[in-house]
Amino acid sequence: KLHSDLDKGVGTVKYTLSGDGAGTVFTIDETTGDIHAIRSLDREEKPFYTLRAQAVDVDTKKPLEPESEFIIKVQDINDNEPRFLDGPYVASVPEMSPVGAYVLQVKATDADDPTYGNSARVVYSILQGQPYFSIDPKTGVIRTALPNMDREVKEQYQVLIQAKDMGGQLGGLAGTTTVNITLTDVNDNPPRFPKSIFHLKVPESSHVGSAIGRIRAVDPDFGKNAEIEYNIVPGDGGNLFDITTDENTQEGVIKLKKPLDFETKKAYTFKVEASNLHLDHRFHSVGPFKDTATVKINVLDMDEPPVFSKPIYTMEVYEDTPVGTIIGAVTAQDLDAGSSSVRYFIDWKNDVDSYFTIDATEGTIATNELLDRESTAQYNFSIIASKVSNPLLTSKVNVIINVLDVNEFPPEISVPYETSVCENAKPGQVIQIITAADKDLSPAGQRFSFKLSSEASNKPNFTVHDYRNNTAGIETRRNGYSRRQQELYFLPIVIEDSSYPVQSSTNTLTIRVCRCDSDGTIQSCNVEAIFLPVGLSTGALIAILLCIVILLVIVVLYVALRRQKKKDTLMTSKEDIRDNVIHYDDEGGGEEDTQAFDIGALRNPKVIEDNKIRRDIKPDTLRFPRHRPPAEDNTDIRDFINQRLKENDADPSAPPYDSLATYAYEGNGSVAESLSSIDSLTTEADQDYDYLSDWGPRFKILADMFGEESYNPDKVT
């Protein structure tokens, strides 16, 4: 209700309404100001409305008061039930789960105002699904309520959940949903054979690797928990059979590993073990997850074809063997209890098989035609054996016959059949290496020999040198050959093999005489080239000679001019009267020059000197080497000097002028000790220098000095 203070109740004031919902949802009495709702309100659709009201003068239509704004709020009532927006639900939980195992959480939504009263307060409960599951009233979490729920007993559960507002009180609205819960499988059951013994019947003709039977162990689990592995327990017959698992049916497929023979053994017994591949450690206490059963196999007798004694037969026969010669035999037997007779025949496929025949009863193979190894070295055909009692039962075997070689072809020279020799060839020169070939199948160690024929051995042109390794060399016997005298030589060569009987052949080698250079390189083998200059005309020969003369004149003039120029230069240099200053910038090495003269050998006599050229002079020719034995320890200096003196006197390469020789070695432990007279134990009077005159002209001055002067002790200081 709206009311203005200026309204005296006499009808002079008019009330107006504008804003949200004015005229459609709400209306106002213009005289009294009462506001009415003209249709039903829904808080969930629009919780409030904003309106504006004003009082105006009826006569002047002017507002008596400013426009005022007000809000009409719709008050909530519990008119909406809780709803499960995500329902129905699907959930799963492993079987054998403990009590309280989490399954799923459900949630219901109430559109009523949660801030006003309990209209939106929801409480959850289970209407269907107890006592297997429980639900939290506030959170809506569903959990297991019973332990050890077994999937193999019951797999699917349908639970009906209710959500009620008003806190679950009487008069509250409720909504429901369905939860479908599935128990997932765990490996809590071992495989079990439905029976302890399995009987199988297998024909003895079963092929190796074929399936001969199936057995199955039952596992109530599902998926990979029901996967079974089968194994044969080692024992009787276990090595003849194998077992695998069919992934689709989880059956054990028994296969044959080796062929069966009724006549050898009629029955086999072995055990098969079935076990799970994927085990769950939580259920080990239940017991071993495997089971064992016995398999008995009875072998059925079958009418079988004959059996050959060998898988393949290999025989040998010489070529040209007479027709009808027996070269071998094949043998087949009927291993069945009836033991029927066997008949043999050749499996005709082509004309090659007609070279041999076989005895139908004995199985002996003989030649039917003459064989030639050079045309066919090996024959390969099949022999078929059939039972007389049942000709349809046959078996086949391959027969290989190798034709052995008989030495019937002589060896022949291998290519080339033609070679060449240079005109300037020397005696004993090898011009060609030849080899031999034999059409026969040469056995190991086959040797060929080479020689000249008897009529060619007397001719002095060529010879054959057998290297005894299946090769031979063609050697020249003359010093040069002439193409003008003979262009071609025909050399007959006899070649023999080492087989029996010995075969030989005479082969002709053509030798062509060719023109070669000094290195032996062939330049021309055409005989027409010899007479090529003869065909030149006289004018052409004159022109060629004239060109040669002109070239010689040019060369002579060039050499003469070079000599004249050199001579003029020397004369000009000699006629120059000016002084010529020649600078020599060489300097001595001083004390550091250790290469001028080596006196190390004089100071160490144990070092054997190498044969060297004297370095104090530069002789024109090398001197002869001198072998100087080293001085022994404690050798007298006199002997040492005498030895050096004799060497210098006898040296033919000594210079004709005086040369300084240094004798710096004093001896090691010599009785003379020092050559100096200073501080000597003896005086000069005790010394006799007459021996110096015996040393030759080189020491004459020294002998005169010491020989004439008398010793005066007063002069010694």
From TrEMBL:
<keyword id="KW-0472">Membrane</keyword>
<dbReference type="GO" id="GO:0008013">
    <property type="term" value="F:beta-catenin binding"/>
</dbReference>
<keyword id="KW-0812">Transmembrane</keyword>
<dbReference type="InterPro" id="IPR039808">
    <property type="entry name" value="Cadherin"/>
</dbReference>
<dbReference type="Pfam" id="PF01049">
    <property type="entry name" value="CADH_Y-type_LIR"/>
</dbReference>
<dbReference type="GO" id="GO:0016339">
    <property type="term" value="P:calcium-dependent cell-cell adhesion via plasma membrane cell adhesion molecules"/>
</dbReference>
<dbReference type="GO" id="GO:0016342">
    <property type="term" value="C:catenin complex"/>
</dbReference>
<keyword id="KW-0597">Phosphoprotein</keyword>
<keyword id="KW-0732">Signal</keyword>
<dbReference type="GO" id="GO:0007156">
    <property type="term" value="P:homophilic cell adhesion via plasma membrane adhesion molecules"/>
</dbReference>
<keyword id="KW-0325">Glycoprotein</keyword>
<feature type="domain" description="Cadherin">
    <location>
        <begin position="309"/>
        <end position="413"/>
    </location>
</feature>
<keyword id="KW-0165">Cleavage on pair of basic residues</keyword>
<keyword id="KW-0479">Metal-binding</keyword>
<feature type="domain" description="Cadherin">
    <location>
        <begin position="85"/>
        <end position="193"/>
    </location>
</feature>
<dbReference type="Pfam" id="PF00028">
    <property type="entry name" value="Cadherin"/>
</dbReference>
<keyword id="KW-1133">Transmembrane helix</keyword>
<dbReference type="GO" id="GO:0000902">
    <property type="term" value="P:cell morphogenesis"/>
</dbReference>
<dbReference type="GO" id="GO:0005912">
    <property type="term" value="C:adherens junction"/>
</dbReference>
<dbReference type="InterPro" id="IPR002126">
    <property type="entry name" value="Cadherin-like_dom"/>
</dbReference>
<keyword id="KW-0106">Calcium</keyword>
<feature type="domain" description="Cadherin">
    <location>
        <begin position="413"/>
        <end position="531"/>
    </location>
</feature>
<dbReference type="GO" id="GO:0034332">
    <property type="term" value="P:adherens junction organization"/>
</dbReference>
<keyword id="KW-0130">Cell adhesion</keyword>
<feature type="transmembrane region" description="Helical">
    <location>
        <begin position="530"/>
        <end position="561"/>
    </location>
</feature>
<feature type="domain" description="Cadherin">
    <location>
        <begin position="194"/>
        <end position="308"/>
    </location>
</feature>
<protein>
    <recommendedName>
        <fullName>Cadherin-12</fullName>
    </recommendedName>
</protein>
<dbReference type="GO" id="GO:0016477">
    <property type="term" value="P:cell migration"/>
</dbReference>
<keyword id="KW-1003">Cell membrane</keyword>
<dbReference type="GO" id="GO:0005509">
    <property type="term" value="F:calcium ion binding"/>
</dbReference>
<dbReference type="InterPro" id="IPR027397">
    <property type="entry name" value="Catenin-bd_sf"/>
</dbReference>
<dbReference type="GO" id="GO:0044331">
    <property type="term" value="P:cell-cell adhesion mediated by cadherin"/>
</dbReference>
<dbReference type="InterPro" id="IPR000233">
    <property type="entry name" value="Cadherin_Y-type_LIR"/>
</dbReference>
<dbReference type="GO" id="GO:0045296">
    <property type="term" value="F:cadherin binding"/>
</dbReference>
<dbReference type="InterPro" id="IPR020894">
    <property type="entry name" value="Cadherin_CS"/>
</dbReference>
<keyword id="KW-0677">Repeat</keyword>
<dbReference type="InterPro" id="IPR015919">
    <property type="entry name" value="Cadherin-like_sf"/>
</dbReference>
<comment type="function">
    <text>Cadherins are calcium-dependent cell adhesion proteins. They preferentially interact with themselves in a homophilic manner in connecting cells; cadherins may thus contribute to the sorting of heterogeneous cell types.</text>
</comment>
<feature type="domain" description="Cadherin">
    <location>
        <begin position="4"/>
        <end position="84"/>
    </location>
</feature>
<dbReference type="GO" id="GO:0007043">
    <property type="term" value="P:cell-cell junction assembly"/>
</dbReference>
